[in-house]
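S2.1 Query sequence (HMA domain-containing protein)
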Amino acid sequence: MKQKIVIEVQMHCSKCRSKALKIAAVADGIVDFVGLEGPEKDKVVVIGHNVDSSGLTSCLRKKVGHANIIKIEEVKPEEKKREEKKPEEKKPDEKMPCIQYPYGPYPYFDKVFVYEDDYPNNRNCCQM
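Output structure tokens follow.
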């Protein structure tokens, strides 16, 4: 059940407002929207599923200031009006032209020459 909870909190500065919004954002349940209402921005609005309103109010009392629950109401999903779909005119399928690109050049390999030393041991050196 999606519900809208409005809680009035005594907030004196912008720091208290941001602190109250942070507390409301991490409330138990699935929170969809958190915001401030009222001319003095002293009402915290929370919209979500299975949000614990009494737990949220007590947490706001402990960390921000005096808090009262103003109202809790169920939010009904908006009914979407179905528009009549007009059948679109079918266009004949346009065939894509077949494009064949030329082959790339063959890879070029350098010739590799291997020279082997006739004398694997150095014969110029003499050991005594």
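Residues 14-25 form the longest helix (12 residues). The longest strand covers residues 2-9.
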